[in-house]
Write a structure and sequence with these properties.
Length: 592
Amino acid sequence: MTTADALPPVRTAGRPGPSAFRLLLSYVRPHRWALLTGAALSLLTGATGLLLPLVARGLIEDLSHDRSVSGKLLAMAALVVTNTVVGALGSYVLRRTAESVVLGARRTLSSYLLRLRIAAVDRTEPGDLMARITSDTTLLREVTTDSLVALGTGGLTLVATVVMMGVVDPVLLGVTLAVIAGAGTVLGTIVPRIHRASRRAQDAVGVMGASLERVLGALRTVKASGAEPREERALHEAAEESWRQSVRAAKWSAAAGNTAGLAMQLAFITVLAVGGARVATGAIGIGTLVAFLLYVFYLMSPIQQVVGAVTQYQTGAGALARIREALELPAEPAFVSVELPSAGAEPAAVAFTDVRFRYADDLPYVHHGVSFAVPARGMTAFVGPSGAGKTTVFSLIERFYDPESGTITLDGRPLADWELPRLRAAIGYVEQDAPVLSGSLRDNLLLGNPEADEGTVARVLKTTRLDGLVERLPQGLETLVGHRGTKLSGGERQRVAIARALLRRPRLLLLDEATSQLDAVNEAALRDTVADVARSTTVLVVAHRLSTVTTADRIVVMDAGRVRAVGTHRELVAGDPLYAELAATQFLAAGH
Ligand code: ADP
Ligand code: MG
């Protein structure tokens, strides 16, 4: 796995596709009323500002005719106060709504990532996916307020101002629009550059997340290998790339903003010149020119708003595209809670019929027609050289992947006919490297069955020989195990994983033995535990030790993606050369 091929690249090469915008709308839709309220308040703020020039014109005319201006002054004061209060309220409502949009996106995205198919996760970097939930969603905040709302309110204010300008003097309006159109052409070339740079900046954040996850997940190995300088360089490179692209985006955003500013100043000067000439010829009065210039001044803000909205949207569109890509990864159906099997539930039978499977279309087959049948109850061991496809058998039973052809049945029913949560509720699965999650020992044990009562927990702790450990720990079950259970030994981690699986009362236990995690005493204890469990449950064990194999009811010998032989230890030692060799070397060596 490399950090470079995080997710398929965005399909819309330059500009954001319309579906990125649709995705944004889907997050905004639930909050449309709040957003409209905020926008309305902003508009009201704009409108009160818009009335000021009119009152100002009246005031100037009153002054030149020696009339009293106290009423107009009061009106102006009232407008200014309203403008401030409504403005503050509006920005609060908008900011709050924007935060809700971010919340909505984070919720849907995190639910979706939990549902991702393992095959999809195999092709991605968890750190990059993490960045999509945390960092990319944050950008939606600005897109919502600074972009959507600003585009709406700014656009409306712009139209209203232009209408007012047309009313005051259509000729001067024509002059103003000509200058603005020129600026628009320049902006058209700048905007796509902002989008490209922002997208790359967010991708770099994703790469950084992936590198961080890689390093922090294996910090011991990194330190032991003296690989800090190289990993440091990779992290810095990702951070710097994000900086470079963000700076590039900032540069183009600044250029866009300043182009708009420059256009307005040019418009101001042009209007002053043309308007001055019109006053001189008597076409318009001085009051009209002053009012028009004030409107040009007032146009500045909505224009800057609209340009800012467009550039801001380009920044967010990169993030939106990244979010959309994550939401396009193959996922399982929405999770539904199901009951765990009852205490005395019948054990399950499993069968593979001619199963062909590969992890991806461009990878070699891992199973070339695997067939075996395991009846309900009893212990079946899977043995074979490393890479034979034993762990893959378990992954297929859990439906982390689906076979390309052939069928897998549980209780005679094809797995595809099982509702996924119900299938997984029937199975207890102990992974090869027995992961333990950070949190307390209790959190870890109850992960798969939070309702298990104290008596059951105590019983399972005893069967898995964890009772001694819990007693020794000052905080007992509340002891924190560290990130990935680093405060436990390998053997303890595996027993915690087994206890966790047993607490789900599985009808089928899949136990992928760790190769050499248990000492002789614990191994004997575990063998007894598994034998116990196998009396009431179907147990499949990927076995690396002779002790597990000799007591198994049947052994499936796998080699290079095929089942070579099935039989008991005694039968196979006599009948299968590969098994005899494995038994002679691997099991004995790994066992002790
Ligand atoms: P075993 O458990 O018998 O050692 P596995 O079932 O783990 O073997 O693996 C069988 C083959 O599939 C190996 O060659 C391994 O490299 C490959 N493999 C395992 N998991 C994946 C995966 N997630 N993606 C691609 N290839 C995989
Ligand atoms: Mg394996």
